[in-house]
Amino acid sequence: MKLFRSPVHAPAVSARIGLWLGIAFGLCFLTGLASHAAQHPPGWFVWPTRPVSLYRVTQGVHVLSGIAAIPLLLAKLWAVYPRLFERPTRLLADALERLSILVLVCAAFFELASGLFNVAQSYPWRFFFVETHYAAGWVAAGALVVHIAVKLPRIRAGWGERADAERRAFLRTTWLATGAAVLATAGVTVPVLRRISVLAWRSPGGPQGLPVNRTAAAAGVQVPEGWRLTVAWPGGSAAFTLAELAALDQRTARLPIACVEGWSATAEWTGVPVRDLLVAAGARTDRPVRVSSLERAGLYATSLLPPAHVADPLTLLALRVNGQTLSPDHGYPCRVIAPSRPGVLQTKWVTRLEVQP
Where is the Oxidoreductase molybdopterin-binding domain (predicted)? Predict the structure, then answer.
């Protein structure tokens, strides 16, 4: 077929696109590991509290590198797909090679497609996204390493070939499409690009100038009459009314809230440092603290503040945002806001802080 004889279907093209696709996949995989460690840290790992925008940066890179990988993957497949129809000369070796390619392509498409559904907060499946996406990421990374190892001689040969005018045009189109995809979406986490990011899935708008993923109505939250915050620890407990919390020394900090979907926004939060609140209650400040919400059914109705975040003076039990009392959708009567922490763990509608043994 004439289509198969196009100069675009050549190692010179696939090797060059493959390099940038490998970089995009590598960034996506490594920052995905960072995101998973921040949300589900193993016992030996401590996610740092500084810089305060660390999670905002790593998760933004994770999502944007995934966006960049989509046009790169499509261009790479276009450059190499005729080889899949060639008659095998080494039956077993070629069969295994094509099977490894199938695993790589399927895992890559699953990761990119499920990631897009996640940023859109649409989950048309029964499995838990976080665990499955994480496991498939390891499959894709392993398959990519095997593929590079098998294809290394051809990759080297491809870099030695000259790219003619038609091939250069195809490569330029690929770079432009990739750049356009990133610029069209990067505004969700890069403020200076918000005006030109026409496909950004979150805007800076929303109650009190911040986007909202889960509203109080969606969470089924109703603040009871006579609400009090309970601070508990082994051997004791204390309770604070909202007025008593407001009477404690307040701190204002400018902190980003960064969600796993890749969007982030910065606001001025005012509240009581969690460390100071524990001291006022008479509890220890060097232990993890379990934070419980008035929300009962959500996957993140509770979260665990590790000791590093408990001790950080910028970890607040926030009562106000941007100078206003928290709206119900932002967690009234109080919420946790901590530096360098995933948004799903910035628990809203807090009702209990429990110091762990």
Answer: 224-356
Does 180 reside within a domain?
yes
Is residue 146 domain-shared with residue 242, that is, in the same domain? no
- Would you say residue 316 has pLDDT above 80? yes
Whole-angstrom distance, CA of residue 216 vs CA of residue 212: 10
Mean of the per-residue pLDDT values of the chain: 92
Residues shown for the chain: 357
- % of the chain beyond a pLDDT of 90: 75
| Distance, CA of 338 to CA of 258 (rounded, Å) | 11
How many domains does the chain fold into? Answer: 2
Q: Is the pTM of this model over 0.90?
A: yes
**What does the block give as tokens for 235?**
């051997």
pLDDT on residue 149: 87
Question: What residue has token string 């398959």?
Answer: 143
CATH number assigned to the domain comprising residue 314: 3.90.420.10
Q: What residues make up the domain containing 104?
A: 3-193
Q: Is residue 319 part of a domain?
A: yes
As a whole number of angstroms, the distance between CA 253 and CA 267 comes to: 8
Residues 218 and 299 in one domain: yes
Domain C-terminal end among 193, 224, 241: 193
Long-range contacts of 236-245 (CB under 8 A, 24+ apart): 236/282, 236/283, 238/280, 238/281, 238/282, 238/283, 240/277, 240/281, 242/319, 242/333, 242/334, 245/271, 245/272, 245/277, 245/317, 245/319, 245/334
Q: Does residue 174 sit within a domain?
A: yes
Same-domain check for residues 140 and 224: no
Query: Is residue 201 very low, low, confident or very high in pLDDT (cuts 50, 70, 90)?
Result: confident
Residues 267 and 169 in one domain: no
- The DSSP bridge partners found for residue 290 are 304, 354
Q: What average pLDDT does the segment 320-345 reach?
A: 97
Phi-psi region at 175: left, alpha or beta (left = phi > 0; alpha = psi -120 to 50) = alpha
Q: pLDDT value at position 4?
A: 62
In a domain, 225, yes or no: yes
List helix spans (H) across the chain.
11-39, 54-80, 91-119, 129-160, 165-185, 216-219, 242-247, 274-281, 307-311
pLDDT in tens, 87-103: 766 767 777 778 888 99
